[in-house]
Design goal:
Elements (H helix, E strand, L loop, with lengths): L6 H17 L23 H17 L1 H12 L4 H22 L5 H4 L13
Length: 124
């Protein structure tokens, strides 16, 4: 039986509502002004979406090897735990959006493909 990302956890109505929230301009993370590196106070945040996403990403850490590897890469890159979970949630949400738009089942190997190795020129 094929798994559909999120449908078992939220139900199809919850998934559709979650996507409506996403497409309505809400996201789960802090914002930064383009001219600064300082993350400032967020004016608009859907707390229900952020909470659902945090729980979804946290649960995915144990259920999905690809999600766990993505989380570990973000932590190794210097992200704090909440920021790495938020990044994972945004990645999962993108996968969910793709699956619903294309009417394809979720595929772990496609959602979390191994990162491409950057080609470095050989020293002369």
């Amino acid at each position: 039986m094929e798994r559909t990302l999120g449908a078992g956890l939220l139900g199809i109505e919850g998934v559709v509502h979650l996507l409506d929230q996403l497409l309505g301009g809400h996201d789960a993370g802090p914002i930064a002004a383009p001219e600064s590196l300082l993350v400032t106070h967020r004016r608009v945040k859907n707390q229900r979406l952020a909470t659902a996403g945090y729980q979804w990403a946290f649960a995915a850490l144990t259920a999905s090897p690809g999600a766990a590897a993505h989380y570990q890469r973000r932590r190794a890159a210097g992200d704090a735990h909440p920021a790495a979970l938020r990044n994972l949630f945004n990645r999962l949400l993108g996968c969910l959006h793709h699956c619903l738009q294309t009417q394809q089942p979720y595929q772990e190997h496609a959602a979390f493909a191994p990162p491409r190795r950057q080609h470095r020129p050989a020293p002369a």
